[in-house]
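A sample copied in:

***
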Amino acid sequence: MGLPFANEGSEGSEGSEGSEGSEGSEGSEASRYSGIGAYAGARLSPMLANALLTTGGELARSYFGDISNPDTTISLLDPNVALGRWSRAVRAQLYTFELVSGLTFSGTPPGPATLAAGGWPGITLQRPSYETGTQPGNLEAALQGVLDMAALRADRLNEILTQVAVPYSFFAMLLNLQPGRHRRTYELMATALILSGIAVMKFKQHFRVRRPADHSPLIQPVILTPSHGSYPAGHSTQGNILVKVLTALVDSKLGSNTAFQLQRLADRISANRVVAGVHFEEDMSAGAALGQELGTRFLNLARTTTTPTTALQWLWTQAAAEWA
């Protein structure tokens, strides 16, 4: 399972896991056609398939007839053992099922919309003020805010460009995340982003708000405007769900500044989207509120101090052990 983040050019898509995605990389050119990647079907290698066929045939040649001495165990695998065996892609499907089960979305456009679930009061978002109230004054003021933030583009351009892709490096910098040592933490983060991606796109579709550059040629974004609604902001939603989840997971084990620094990072990544010219400032505040509430929902489902009984609880327990 990759590590999706809120890059809105490909929002909801699964991104790379930094160096974790290179686990099992095979190095030499020859190994591309004979290594485990080719065996798993990631690459087409008729040569390897034929070599396995002839090798297997030779090894089993003396065993024609009935199979001998098989393992006859047929009991169910322990569920937590099974989760450790399954691939990340399979676990992601199990996590997604648990995350969306029980969610309800209500509201009639262009009015407010509410996302909730049993035991979780959820969150209600209103249509942004730059599309309501006194017009064209409200919209013009919001556009002016985007233009004012453009003054920071020269200073933040590297951040803007690198945060279009999966910005896990920024969280890794802050928390000293390492792919091998914190592999379940990465998976937990990716899973939280599944929930935020689903939720934010549902709200975006409900409100169907135009982007700043749809209103004025003066905006001139420095990155391609994403092909979905502006409100609420995906980067802000996803950054804030990570703040909530990672604060609970790390539990100040890196010091009392951890939560504060996580929030500052999420705020800066969010603000960079306004600086880039692809969001209004109000999109960010709505995304932050949504992300925080989704973080509460996620923790309610995943966090446990007892033996895990769900896939999400299994993942939480595994990730928490990396910070013990």
